[in-house]
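User: quick one, sequence for these tokens?
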């Protein structure tokens, strides 16, 4: 009996591994790397959950999914009930199950994490979302009677889609305005197919449309229409969720050379404009033999792994701190290393050198770590006279993004920070009555689920505002 109890205890700490494409296979295609749980794997993993009487995982989720309930339903094999539970608070579960940093959110506070491995909450969320898709797609939950109130949502990224879905469910007439030719914002232009297939994104966008939201593409708010004009044509409230789409650069000599891309341009060409299918699509893209990616976030990992799949012989990530401080998800760093991406750590580029207008070499300086800075990470400090060079014929800059300034420049009375971020209170209210904002345009570059959490808060407050008109 004691042996049986001990075995059961040990099994509880074993996390079910996510099946993946082998590295030597996946670097030759853009298909999804993680393959998802089978029903048996999902049930086994769900049965590990302790069903804590005071679960911390819900508080670790920015959109407050009832995690214990949906996991219990998976453990019982009731997958339809599980997806209904998730969709009460999350309009995009197939997306959040794939790209959320669960390890620092819901899974980071799981009680089992103290002993070994937390419940694979993200993988289970993805499983039930995919199960729903396999049964014919998303089912429309109940939608309230029409209120006659109209809301304009600017931007169709995670914050905008969440606001639109929540307000449409409450019976409001919602129109999303998207500047690009396809919906999804950073989900469409920034995340590669091998991490988030466009078919999955389109399914979730269609769910929001099923709830009643309309999407108007190729409309640049601030140019095609101003915020003031949205009110003039009858909208009662406006939510701004335009994200952070303007790339940051290193501002070093040589950055103007051919062969130097921002990660934004590189990934947009590939993800949104299908450059990896050049011939079938008209978007050209240049890929060098020896590609260098500067930065260490998820965008850097996506850029490096995309370059490998496009045929680069060698891809190196240059980062000024150590691997322990890299901001990318641990899973994505591991995937990149498995695929052959090299890490050049404690290194900072200071100059790019070229021949005939094309980048050929990078001058770098070695770094060491000093005291912690405002981010909590140890500050990188240059080591004097440690300069060195290495050859590269393509450089991708992936060190972050700024907010697009168009709306702030064209909307009177909208207060912004010195960096162009829109200032709001905790409910997403801006300095202008009737205008809310949320996501990266308020916080700076953050996570998909954080943007969705901001969208949910704003949607609640917008609803209260509309019902008093």
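Assistant:
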């Amino acid at each position: 009996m004691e042996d049986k109890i001990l075995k059961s205890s040990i099994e509880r700490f074993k996390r079910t591994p996510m099946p993946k494409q082998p590295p030597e296979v996946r670097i030759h295609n853009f298909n999804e790397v993680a393959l998802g749980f089978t029903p048996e794997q999902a049930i086994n993993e769900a049965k590990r959950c302790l069903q804590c009487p005071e679960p911390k995982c819900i508080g670790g989720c920015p959109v407050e999914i009832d995690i214990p309930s949906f996991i219990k339903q998976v453990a019982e094999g009731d997958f339809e009930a599980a997806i209904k539970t998730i969709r009460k608070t999350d309009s995009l579960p197939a997306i959040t199950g794939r790209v959320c940093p669960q390890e620092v959110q819901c899974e980071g506070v799981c009680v089992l994490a103290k002993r070994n491995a937390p419940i694979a909450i993200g993988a289970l969320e993805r499983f039930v979302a995919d199960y729903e898709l396999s049964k014919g797609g998303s089912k429309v939950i109940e939608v309230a009677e029409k209120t006659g109130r109209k809301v304009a949502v600017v931007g169709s990224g995670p914050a905008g889609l969440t606001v639109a879905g929540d307000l449409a469910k409450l019976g409001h007439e919602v129109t999303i305005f998207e500047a690009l030719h396809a919906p999804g914002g950073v989900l469409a232009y920034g995340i590669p197919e091998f991490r988030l297939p466009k078919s999955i994104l389109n399914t979730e966008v269609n769910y929001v449309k099923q709830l009643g939201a309309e999407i108007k593409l190729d409309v640049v708010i601030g140019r095609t229409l101003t915020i003031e004009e949205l009110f003039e044509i009858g909208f009662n409230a406006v939510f701004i969720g335009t994200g952070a789409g303007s790339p940051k650069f290193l501002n070093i000599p040589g950055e103007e050379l051919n062969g130097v891309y921002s990660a934004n341009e590189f990934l947009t060409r590939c993800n949104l404009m299908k450059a990896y299918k050049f011939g079938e699509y008209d978007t050209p893209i240049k890929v060098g033999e020896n590609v260098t990616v500067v930065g260490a976030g998820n965008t850097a990992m996506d850029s490096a792994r995309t370059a490998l799949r496009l045929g680069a012989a060698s891809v190196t990530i240059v980062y000024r701190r150590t691997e322990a401080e890299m901001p990318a998800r641990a899973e994505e760093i591991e995937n990149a290393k498995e695929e052959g991406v090299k890490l050049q750590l404690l290194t900072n580029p200071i100059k790019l050198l070229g021949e005939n207008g094309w980048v050929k070499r990078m001058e770098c300086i070695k770094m060491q770590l000093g005291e912690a800075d405002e981010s909590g990470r140890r500050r990188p400090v240059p080591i004097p006279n440690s300069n060195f060079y290495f050859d590269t014929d393509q450089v991708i800059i992936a060190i972050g993004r700024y907010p697009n300034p168009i709306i702030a420049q064209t909307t009177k009375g909208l207060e912004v920070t010195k960096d162009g971020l829109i200032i709001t209170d905790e409910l997403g209210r801006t300095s202008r009555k009737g205008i809310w904002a949320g996501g990266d345009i308020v916080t700076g570059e953050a996570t998909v689920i954080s943007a969705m959490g901001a969208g949910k808060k704003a949607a609640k407050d917008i609803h209260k505002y509309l019902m008093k008109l």
